[in-house]
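Hi V.,

You were right to ask for the full record rather than a summary. Here it is.
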Amino acid sequence: MQIKVENIGKKFVREWIIRRASFVLEEGQMYTFVGPNGSGKSTLLQLITGMTPATEGTITYNDGGKEIDVEQWYKHLVIAAPYLELIEEFTLRELIDFHKKFKPLKHNISTPDFEDFIQLSHASGKVIRHFSSGMKQRVKLGLAFMSDVPVIFLDEPTTNLDVHGINWYLDNVKKSTEKQLVLLGSNVKQEYEFCENIINVSAFK
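Predicted structure:
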């Protein structure tokens, strides 16, 4: 999997949030987009995911040398971010089973085993709307880590996690994502200090 970003830009009204961003993202690598609050980290990630249309420039997705149609791109990625909502009417088990219909989990991991992985087996029958913000974040991260897709987007991954949750994230973010392309958006060094590829979003202004 390769993502090629060429002179991408995003303009809101009269202000350019991102402009002239160009880089290549390669399979099996982990990249972190850093910059102060308001620098455009989340916007850039949303441009790459396709959630937000670009004002200018192009993004090309290639899998094994074959270009992926932009309409099929969503099948190749998974996202964990504070601004993405879970289906709050589902129980945890219903949510996991629903997710698996669209994105299979690695190693055909069972739903109960996944609940153990995110350390929430005790909440299997609990409705998501009654989860704490930290529990919801762990569900999002777990689905990102274990979905069998080539690209993972993690935006501000430790938001709402307590110390135990942060340690769980740090224990799993590398060993659960081997061979995948992982894109992080963060300005908290602890979230990405293991990452060798750092892209400063402030350069794209």
